[in-house]
Prior knowledge:
- By secondary structure, the protein is of the alpha/beta class.
- The chain is about 35% helix and about 20% strand.
- A nine-stranded mixed sheet has the order 13-12-11-10-6-9-8-7-14.
- Helix 4 (about 85-95) runs parallel beside helix 5 (about 110-120), helix 6 crosses helix 9 and helix 9 packs across helix 12 (about 340-355).
- The longest helix has 20 residues, at about 340-355.
- The model has no long low-confidence stretch (mean pLDDT about 95).
Amino acid sequence: xxxxxxxxxxxxxxxxxxxxxxxxxxxxxxxxxxxxxxxxxxxxxxxxxxxxxxxxxxxxxxxxxxxxxxxxxxxxxxxxxxxxxxxxxxxxxxxxxxxxxxxxxxxxxxxxxxxxxxxxxxxxxxxxxxxxxxxxxxxxxxxxxxxxxxxxxxxxxxxxxxxxxxxxxxxxxxxxxxxxxxxxxxxxxxxxxxxxxxxxxxxxxxxxxxxxxxxxxxxxxxxxxxxxxxxxxxxxxxxxxxxxxxxxxxxxxxxxxxxxxxxxxxxxxxxxxxxxxxxxxxxxxxxxxxxxxxxxxxxxxxxxxxxxxxxxxxxxxxxxxxxxxxxxxxxxxxxxxxxxxxxxxxxxxxxxxxxxxxxxxxxxxx
Length: 366
């Protein structure tokens, strides 16, 4: 694996590296970790990458690695959003598979073009919708698909953080509030798409319409930092999506509830090893990570016996393990691909415009 971005000061770069290498199927061997060569070398050193494989640009890396017998076969994109499109296009054009951070691109137009390129490429493409890698998220998906809560009636997903409740400070905060680097969406693009993907992934339904209210709460901020969306899904199912980065006291409060006519499920990212199943007869069942009764998908995503907590890094590693399967030409049906990334960009673009224009209910269409 090569990496673009992820250099000094990056949060997500080291996370990609740890997740990719956890199962020893993928190894980070090169990178263009920063646009300044010395910073790229410093970034490479933090990953134990030699100076000669720490490049000043992605183009340099792709050209040099193509001439090596042990050159990179895949690229992890760990840059701000505005670089996702160009990086992915360059890699795919060079025959290098891509694992892109979310959102897919900075604009919907870029996403459409990239999706077309992916369909023509002969290599895998993945999007790091990390939370779909949790074993109990996959258990919830399988349970709902098997009719475990009956016919779905309502979906509620929320993702609350408080780290941007004040003046944005530091590299990670600054670029997320800059439209030239983040794109047209702030909170909706940073965490709203995670919530959206989780809702569709677990329920097996796709949202068809949205009524969006995106707000910029902190004075002087250029992009939204607080979002409330009403959603309509297929089969007449109603939904609610709340995403906020100004909710003081909240850390990484991603929570999903799906209600059917026979029961409901409740999962929280901050307590990821427990899934609650609440049934119409009044019984509540606790499903725990590592349980012997877990289905095949959840069991395959588990690494430790019950009572040994698995968390974010392991979930991310499951996404990379799925990607390794795709690289070997094996089925990887749970890997989030370009279609999921494109739907996320559809949500961002539609919600931003609809909220700005006061459009009311708007169709989610590609």
